[in-house]
Amino acid sequence: MLSRRQNQPFARTPRGSARAANRHSPQPQVPRSRAVRSKRSGLWYAIYFPELPDIAHSETSATSLAAQHCQNISDYISLDGDDALVLEVSRSLRYFGGLARIRQSIESGIASHLGHTQYFQAVTPSASASLLIARAGQEAAIGTPEDLRSRLGSIPTHTLAIDLRVRRKLAQCGLFNLRDIWRLPLTELRIRFGRHFSDYIENCLGLRPESRPRWQAKAEYHESFDADHGLHSVQQIISACEKLLHQLEAFLKKNHLCTDRLEFLFDYGHRGQATDSKSDQHDSITVNVRKAGRTARLFLLLLETQLAEKTFAGEVYSITLQVRHLAHFQPEGGYQQKQRTAADRHGSHLLDTLAAKLGSRGVQRFLLQQDYCPEFATRMVPYLTSVAEDDVGSSDSAYTTSHNPCWLLQPPRPLVIRHQQLHYLSPLTLLRGPRRIETRWWQDQGIRRDYYVAANAQGLLLWIYQDLARNSSTQPRQHDWYLHGFFG
């Protein structure tokens, strides 16, 4: 049962002392700051698509296409799920000449991008209220927060953007419409349904500022170079590509971006010249780097390396540079950046050049994994494989280079025992050990080994082990000692 205070209207000053009024009224008695007023005086335009149209041959959703068009109206756009969006239009009213012009521009843009699609629109001073009205299948235009209470009263509670369990509790309490909630004091709502619900109700009534994540379009770069005459030599093509790369560098620096993948498209067909096959008039080269950058000199060096072995089918009349993988640039100076020395950075440029020369899989590198078994603790991956910095050389990895060598033999080589002494080119001397590794006991063939560091007369440092699992078996084995790796 609800308490006696349920008959006191929500968000209105109840009868009683000033202390009781301050306790039950959600509106603060202190004067609001200028920043809060500016946030609450906004105007939010919500668009809800009950049935999203199918966009063939496109990676962009319907709401993203609508948001791209709404960028011409407002710079503050936020997506709400996959079927709704909201934009702030109070600063655009003067430029467009009123809300009617803004609505006309939005409807024309949706019709041109999505065709005849059903959608609902709502404009209120609250983003949550606009989305709530639109998702309820209604349309409204409310200019002041004082009118939100009466307009939202008829909306059922099962359409609220809250947790399903809270909606069930509201139905069990007999609260089927928002006008039933207005009769409850704010403190009772917080106690019975949680603070998130009470904050959501305050957002719908415009009693508190909202902070919604901004939507940003997927950044892409596209630039072309059209030659007046056909480019037949590699030097002419490099000169044209150099201009495109300098333009790309200026764009990346201006927008504080970087990239790790560039694609050059070469067009052999002259303007106005018809060809039989489209596949014969285009060619492409992809430039990859492991660590994203924005330096035209590095990209040009990698491009020259690939162009040196490229054979073109004819004269090139157009070159197009496309960049689809853009990321925010992180300048050097952080903790992880300080750990990388200048030699590491120059070494990465050298490896990028070798990868461009030998191919994407021509240069391999080690990747540590969380496994105590030496055979599975490392794996080789192509150098250009994008791997997080925390995954490479992680201190939490079971495989440590201070104990294990990087050069492992696959499979391990059996050692010969002569005169009760291990031999590899010469008798071996055990320097350090044993170090037991026992793992994968849950599999059919578990691992139980004692590892030693040994040396021979030739000065080689060897990593050997004794297979205890085979040694304890019923059938004796001839080879119980194995050579597993070499130390540098």
UniProtKB/TrEMBL annotation:
- What InterPro entries does the database record attribute to this sequence? DNA/RNA_pol_sf, SulA_CellDiv_inhibitor
Bias category Polar residues: which stretches?
1-10
**Which controlled-vocabulary keywords does the entry list?**
DNA damage
Question: Where do the record's region annotations for Disordered lie?
Answer: 1-36
GO terms (BP aspect): DNA repair
User: Protein name, please?
Assistant: UmuC domain-containing protein
- From which organism does this entry originate? marine sediment metagenome
